[in-house]
Amino acid sequence: MTATFPPSDDCARLVPSLLTATAFQSFGTVLEAPTGLGRSINAGSSERFDLVDDLQLGAAGGRAQLALFRAQARSFPLQILEMERHCLGSQTFVPWGACRFVLVVAPAGDPPVAAASLQAFITDGRQGVVLAPGTWHHALLAVDSGDFLVIERAALVTDCDIHRLAVPVWLGCP
């Protein structure tokens, strides 16, 4: 299916590609149900798969916080106007159920974030992600309404930089 965008000469256009670990590796880690055998635990009644060994949440007195985000499905195409980043810790999104979402990301670094540096990925509804500290990203863009478990750094000082794009970007969704 091809994305249909509103007519505009002054906006960039972005269409998400399927999320894969290889394509996403410079932005963070893709979380998927592992294949193969895990480590036997609980007297053999369960298998354990260690997915990420350090979520990098302890900087500057931070601690892990588990939250639930109840997201409404977005309508596409959608105009992307700003990006955010968390320099002191990662941010993890895992759908609680089968909920697809789109990730709009850009490499870590100082602003300004250029529209040309944005990439977009769509999950299959069962994938989650760990965004590496400093990765620029858009707020949660649910394709399907639903709940998401979010693990992020909590501390006295908020770790969230927001940058408004100089040129808006239209995000389509296949």
3D architecture notes:
The protein has 174 residues and is mostly beta strands. The protein has one domain: Jelly Rolls (Sandwich). The strands form four sheets. Strands 2, 9, 10, 12 and 13 form a five-stranded mixed beta sheet that branches. A hairpin with a 4-residue loop joins strand 4 and strand 5. The longest helix has 4 residues. It is globular and about 60 Å long.
Integer-rounded radius of gyration: 17 Å
In CATH terms, the superfamily is: Ureidoglycolate hydrolase
CATH class: Mainly Beta
The fraction of residues assigned to DSSP E strands is 35-45%
Helix % is under 10%
> Helical stretch count?
1
Q: How would the global form be characterised?
A: globular
Quaternary structure type = single chain
Class by SSE composition: mainly beta
Rounded to the nearest angstrom, the distance between the terminal CA atoms is 5 Å
Taken together, the total number of domains comes to: 1
Secondary-structure element pattern, one letter each:
EEHEEEEEEEEEEEEE
CATH topology: Jelly Rolls
- Runs in which pLDDT lies below 50 for 5 or more consecutive residues are none
DSSP, total strands: 15
Which features characterize this protein?
174 residues, 5-stranded antiparallel β-sheet, Jelly Rolls, 1 helix
